[in-house]
Known about the structure:
The protein is an alpha+beta fold. The chain has 2 domains: 6-131, Beta-Lactamase; 138-223. 53% of the residues lie in helices and 19% in strands. It is built from 8 helices and 6 strands; from the N terminus they run βααββααααβββαα. It has helices at 14-18, 20-28, 48-54, 58-61, 66-69, 83-88, 133-187, 194-223, and strands at residues 6-8, 33-38, 43-46, 95-101, 104-116, 122-131. α7 runs antiparallel to α8. 11% of the residues are buried.
Amino acid sequence: MAEPMTYSLQDIPAKVVKDYATTISILDHLSDAIFMVDKHGVVQYANKRTFELLKVDIQGLRGRMIDELFPQKLSEFGETNSLVDHFKNGHYSDLNTYIVFQDISIPVHASFSIVKTANGDIDFIIVSVKDMTIQKSLEKELRNQQIMSISRDRIRALGELSVSLVHELSQPLASLQMRLELLQNKIQGDETNSRLMKHFAELDDLISRINNSVQVVRTFAFQSE
């Protein structure tokens, strides 16, 4: 990831520095939340979009530490050092994380621009925060649609398998049922074959149960087409 631009106060046009009202007006019309943090990591300014996003005014936000707003840091940042410490060490990675304020937690993409003094020290940090709520929602919806599509494909494949299974079983079962009935009719009334008739009855019951199962599979196959 490319390192964000750093600036020296000498690079900022004098008119921009002087015309504070114009600068604030420009920042307030940006669609992203913008706030400025001093070299200690304390919030000093926030634009209108920030207040709308976090449902707070400048009095409620000014004086907050940047680490309070971004409790989830990049893994390489570690757990103890603040973001400002990492900026001082030359780490400027963007964050795909959550901005947290009181009971509000919003998925965001945060980027950082470092404004330095003439000596190369951090003077203040400009934080740009893009609300990713809609994008996250769309990504979730897309994943759900993909899952549904996969499920439909699997059901369709299962239906095709069921049709094939019904076709393969129906004819042999019908033939077996017919031959069993012929044998039963042939030996019916012969008392010496009573034990054999009992076995035939059990076979007939088994065939009926298999036929019932095939009918259930056939119904599913037709519904999945």
